[in-house]
Specification:
The protein has 185 residues and is α+β, with helices and mostly antiparallel strands. The strands form two sheets. It has a five-stranded mixed sheet. Strands 1-4 form a two-stranded antiparallel sheet. The longest helix is centred in the last third of the chain and has 16 residues. Its EC number is 3.5.4.16. This is GTP cyclohydrolase 1.
Length: 185
């Protein structure tokens, strides 16, 4: 649960610590704006992916389902700077599929938290396995991290790629190959 007042207090202290005058016109409402923004961008902390993945539909097919290029924005828990990119999800149904928008919503649940990309990738795959019970799931996340772009090494455009395999994707390399082919990788 986001504590609006504590965030406002913290932002005031941060601004003062930077040497800013928190009473000047441009900063007067900043603590409230930041607290409201945090309620939005960290709203995934109070969400359960199972809510989105619970509504399934019966199917006869067990062919791979892929939802690719799901744009997301998250925040690195090490530097509190954004990282953003695309998530690609595949699963092999075991009699049930989920609405495609629910896959994007699942990405959002986990992206809207303080995160590590490696953890985000695994959380998405684990949620699919837990709530949909498919034969297998595979998730690939490609992201640019502002902690590498605007500070430290300063290498804009560099991409971090993480992969999580579950179920049959761990044991059948042809499924992984098909996943990458379908993504155009």
């Amino acid at each position: 649960m986001i504590d609006h007042e504590k965030i406002e207090q913290a932002v005031r202290l941060l601004l003062e610590g930077m040497g800013e005058d928190i009473t000047r016109e441009g900063l007067k409402d900043t603590p409230d704006r930041i607290a409201r923004m945090y309620e939005e961008i960290y709203g995934g902390m109070d969400e359960d992916a199972g809510v989105h993945l619970a509504k399934t539909f019966t199917v006869d097919s067990s062919e791979m389902v892929i939802e690719k290029d799901i744009t997301f924005y998250s925040t690195c828990e090490h530097h509190l700077l954004p990282f953003y990119g695309k998530a690609h999800i595949a699963y092999i149904p075991d009699g049930k599929v989920v609405g495609l928008s629910k896959l994007a919503r699942t990405v959002e649940v986990f992206a809207r938290r303080l995160q590590l990309q490696e953890q985000l990738t695994g959380q998405i795959a684990d949620a699919l396995m837990q709530y949909m019970c498919p034969k297998g799931a595979m998730v690939m996340v490609e992201a640019e991290h502002m902690c590498m772009t605007m500070r430290g090494i300063k290498k804009p455009g560099s991409q971090t790629v993480t992969i999580a395999r579950r179920g049959v994707f761990e044991t059948d390399p042809t499924l992984e190959e098909r996943f990458f082919r379908m993504l155009g990788k």
